[in-house]
Amino acid sequence: MSGGAASTPKPLPSSGPKSLREMPHPLATSSSEEMGPALTPSPDLLLPRCIADKDLSLPNGTPVDTSSPASSSSLLNRLQLDDDLDVETRDLFVTVDDPKKHVCTMETYITYRVTTKTTRAEFDLPEYSVRRRYQDFDWLRNKLEESQPTHLIPPLPEKFVVKGVVDRFSEEFVETRRKALDKFLKRITDHPVLSFNEHFNVFLTAKDLNAYKKQGMALLSKVGESVKYVTGGYKLRSRPLEFAAIGDYLDTFSLKLGTIDRIAQRIIKEQLEYLVELREYGPVYSTWGGLEVELSEPLEGVSACIGNCCTALEELSEDMTEDFLPVLREYILYAESMKNVLKKRDQVQAEYEAKLEAVALKKEDRPKVPTDVEKCQDRVECFNADLKADMERWQNNKRQDFRQLLMGMADKNIQYYEKSNLK
């Protein structure tokens, strides 16, 4: 790492022939007829798009300033104001906190307190507090996928860790997971459909969740069953252009974000190795200063400066580990979830095309479209509408999350250099 400062930085390796700016925006048009040359390229993957050409105002008529902020702190304050305004319209609040370790004869595990406050009529009480472990969150996500197959379900943090590398009962790991689980529930809470799901209600309110888990398939909706049991005998001819664009976008997004994640992990590893060397390096000057009185003042100054660098670098590494990497990994998993919904949509469309073709081959003058074909068409249209709506919501969340992440990391790096230059 010591030689990296003198060499010219290398650009990130490309994951394909297309650059990010060449990728078409997946929501540029609302129908397949409008796709093609009229596609609007997406100018952003991780960076915010300019919205200065829109006249925006708050619900009370106050105009919103869309000009560039003077600093990253002012941008974060503006985003916080938007969150505060949104809070006023919410009727469901969920938080995950208070992790506790449980040691039993057969296993050791962590539970988290899930607190719910709501004014919705679907809940019997205005406030609930239950304890849940990771496998309960996993049960909830599986149930949401089964009962709401047309929607994008937020991802959970990875369950398994490499033994001997990460201690899953360490305070740092538990806190990182708690934040991820809290984000998972907040994503569901903010969704206009998922937040009203019966399984989500049970998860938030039931004291004994195991009783509901044993019911298995009994609570699956008809839509969930119809998609779950689609056979693999149907082959899709081709995706509509707008959904093909979404698939290409997600592939490129995953590759680029995966590259950033790997490089960020390597940077953190090298920072920690450098930090070990600095901690051994600083005290040498203090010892030297004790041996030579004439040089004691400048040597102590060097030692103090190295100490400041150690403290600043340690804080920067912690910020990258606790704040930067989790967001990258969440969105990598998010992209995979969206791809899975696309595959389900393709299965339903392939089934519809096959059934429609079978009807057309019947030797009748005016064949009547069977009911099952009409139902299949309804499922395709439902998938299309829900998928596009969730994609738009995901893009909005992504832009806001990465604004906060990148501007926050810029502030952290500025603070690092300021602390390192203290005399």
Describe what you observe in this structure.
The chain has 423 residues and is mainly α. It has helices at residues 72-87, 134-147, 171-189, 198-205, 210-213, 222-228, 241-291, 296-360, 371-420, and strands spanning 92-103, 108-118, 127-133. The protein has a three-stranded antiparallel beta sheet. A hairpin with a 4-residue loop joins strand 1 and strand 2. It is elongated.
Considering the chains and any ligands shown, give keywords for the structure.
9 helices, 423 residues, three-stranded antiparallel β-sheet, mainly alpha, single chain, 3 strands, disordered N terminus
Q: What is the gist of this entry?
A:
This protein is mainly α. It has helices at residues 72-87, 134-147, 171-189, 198-205, 210-213, 222-228, 241-291, 296-360, 371-420; strands spanning 92-103, 108-118, 127-133.
